[in-house]
């Protein structure tokens, strides 16, 4: 970086690099019109453009956001400077524009086929055919409906996320916001796919049969995933970079999973849904890497709730419409752990302060677990006190008692604080790096479980079917 942190204009090397990247991507994009349209290449090219646009816009618009009151204080620094917040809004807008521009690409072949006689542009159509709706019955309207429903869901979550960043909606109200955003997806799932059965593991098959139909409960489960994914990313937050790195890791692992299906001989039944997933993940990675550039330690911008919700919803969109929501659940294991571990504070058994991010020790420059203070008058009830002490014994919490055995402090229930209880005080970027590495290792293990270990308890894996 040659530009100073406060500079709002791009440095010359940055301008040259972004300009070259954009020109190269636009050239590749223009070339995809020759041949069959090559939608995957077009998606990659547009993702490059999305990176450049987000990179430049974050730099240019930072001060405008601060002027409009979208700013936050970085609590883990010596100098408590205000920096722009809600930069996820820029990512969301760029992403949505790119996804909209991309609409014709995956349908290029179908548009040609539906409008000029089976894809052969030399065929001269008879007048009566032209009047019969230009053979549009051949067009995959279902696929387009999936695509459009995904856009509606992502637009809704972006609007709601920006609303949250502007008005700081109360936690218990905003928790359900993503459920509304998921309705278009669930409707398309119902019409288009409609499978509500789950495969029963081999040991349980004598009791439940091979398939178990969850019926409408399956939709409740999917709405649950839609509520969980965005919120879980928002509460695994509070140190520079962590919201973006966890999202990038999950997106890359989902993309890796998609690529496994592309490597199988076409036409595999799941290839199309995994291609669809890549079309949504690649531009997401484009905007996220640009955001990470600014949000990594020492952060020059905050991502805001908009980014956390948006990222979580991108995963929901691809996994519901790609029919692999259970794989997503495996990739969200650290987030699930963080949520379950947070439950005592989220559900009010232990007081929950507005912020639970790790505490910055200005003397050492290191992060320590943040704590909830207890007073002699306000002590946890007996069973809770017992549970807190038990967690302390298992090193799952840090509890401080006074001489009389009364609670004075308990560390806050987040995975970031727990990590600090285990590892001792750490520098902020070190903590972010370690949590990100853990996310990657656990995610890779999740994918391994999905494709290999699952074969121990299920008859087959839908990727393995074609490979073995
Ligand atoms: C969630 C967490 C909260 C955590 C916060 C941090 C729950 C229930 N809520 O709340 O405990 O403190 O995220 O994002 O678990 N900030 C930093 N450094 C960072 C990132 C954020 O200091 O690297 C601070 C800034 O002051 C920023 C603020 O956190 O303005 C953003 O918090 P916000 O996203 O509004 O908090 P919530 O999502 O409501
Ligand atoms: Mg937040």
UniProtKB/TrEMBL annotation:
Compartmental location: Endoplasmic reticulum membrane
The protein's name in its UniProt record: UDP-N-acetylglucosamine--dolichyl-phosphate N-acetylglucosaminephosphotransferase
Keyword annotations: Endoplasmic reticulum, Glycosyltransferase, Magnesium, Membrane, Metal-binding, Transferase, Transmembrane, Transmembrane helix
Gene Ontology MF terms in the entry: glycosyltransferase activity; metal ion binding; UDP-N-acetylglucosamine-dolichyl-phosphate N-acetylglucosaminephosphotransferase activity
EC number, UniProt record: 2.7.8.15
Essential cofactor(s): Mg(2+)
Superkingdom of source: Eukaryota
Similarity field: Belongs to the glycosyltransferase 4 family.
Pathway: Protein modification; protein glycosylation
Annotated signal peptide: none
GO biological process: dolichol-linked oligosaccharide biosynthetic process
Function of the molecule: UDP-N-acetylglucosamine--dolichyl-phosphate N-acetylglucosaminephosphotransferase that operates in the biosynthetic pathway of dolichol-linked oligosaccharides, the glycan precursors employed in protein asparagine (N)-glycosylation. The assembly of dolichol-linked oligosaccharides begins on the cytosolic side of the endoplasmic reticulum membrane and finishes in its lumen. The sequential addition of sugars to dolichol pyrophosphate produces dolichol-linked oligosaccharides containing fourteen sugars, including two GlcNAcs, nine mannoses and three glucoses.
């Amino acid at each position: 970086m040659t530009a100073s942190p406060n500079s709002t204009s791009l440095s010359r090397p940055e301008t040259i690099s972004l300009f070259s990247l954009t020109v190269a991507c636009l050239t590749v994009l223009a070339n995809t019109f020759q041949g069959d349209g090559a939608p995957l290449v077009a998606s990659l090219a547009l993702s490059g453009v999305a990176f450049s646009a987000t990179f430049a816009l974050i730099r240019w618009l930072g001060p405008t956001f601060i002027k409009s009151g979208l700013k936050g204080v970085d609590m883990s620094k010596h100098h408590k400077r205000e920096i722009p917040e809600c930069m996820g809004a820029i990512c969301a807008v760029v992403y949505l524009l790119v996804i909209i521009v991309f609409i014709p690409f995956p349908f290029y072949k179908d548009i040609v086929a539906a409008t000029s006689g089976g894809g052969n542009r030399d065929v001269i159509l008879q007048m009566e055919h032209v009047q019969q709706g230009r053979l549009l019955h051949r067009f995959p309207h279902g696929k387009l409906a999936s695509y459009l429903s995904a856009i509606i869901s992502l637009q809704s979550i972006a609007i709601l996320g920006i609303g949250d960043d502007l008005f700081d909606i109360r936690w218990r109200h905003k928790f359900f916001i993503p459920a509304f955003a998921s309705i278009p997806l669930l409707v398309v799932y119902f019409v288009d796919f409609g499978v509500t059965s789950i495969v029963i593991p081999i040991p349980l098959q004598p009791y439940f049969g091979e398939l178990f139909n969850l019926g409408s409960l399956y939709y409740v489960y999917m709405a649950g995933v839609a509520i969980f994914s965005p919120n879980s990313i928002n509460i695994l937050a509070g140190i520079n970079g962590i919201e973006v790195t966890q999202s990038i890791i999950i997106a890359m692992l989902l993309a890796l999973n998609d690529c496994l299906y592309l490597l199988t001989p076409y036409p595999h039944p799941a290839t199309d849904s995994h291609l669809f997933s890549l079309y949504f993940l690649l531009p997401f990675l484009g905007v996220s890497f640009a955001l990470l550039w600014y949000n990594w330690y020492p952060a020059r911008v905050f991502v805001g709730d908009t980014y956390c919700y948006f990222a979580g919803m991108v995963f929901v969109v691809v996994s519901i419409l790609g029919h692999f929501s259970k794989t997503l659940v495996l990739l969200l294991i650290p987030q699930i752990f963080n949520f379950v571990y947070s439950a005592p504070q989220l559900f009010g058994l232990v007081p929950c302060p507005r912020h639970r991010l790790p505490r910055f020790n200005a003397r050492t420059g290191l992060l320590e677990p943040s704590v909830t203070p207890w007073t002699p008058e306000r002590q946890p009830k007996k069973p809770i006190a017992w549970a807190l002490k038990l967690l302390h014994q298992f090193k799952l919490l840090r509890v401080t008692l006074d001489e009389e055995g009364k609670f004075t402090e308990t560390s806050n229930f987040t995975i970031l604080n727990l990590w600090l209880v285990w590892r001792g005080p750490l520098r902020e970027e070190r903590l972010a790096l370690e949590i990100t590495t853990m996310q990657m290792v656990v995610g890779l293990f999740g994918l391994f479980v999905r494709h290999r270990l699952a074969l121990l308890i299920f008859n087959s894996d839908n990727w393995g079917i074609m490979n073995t």
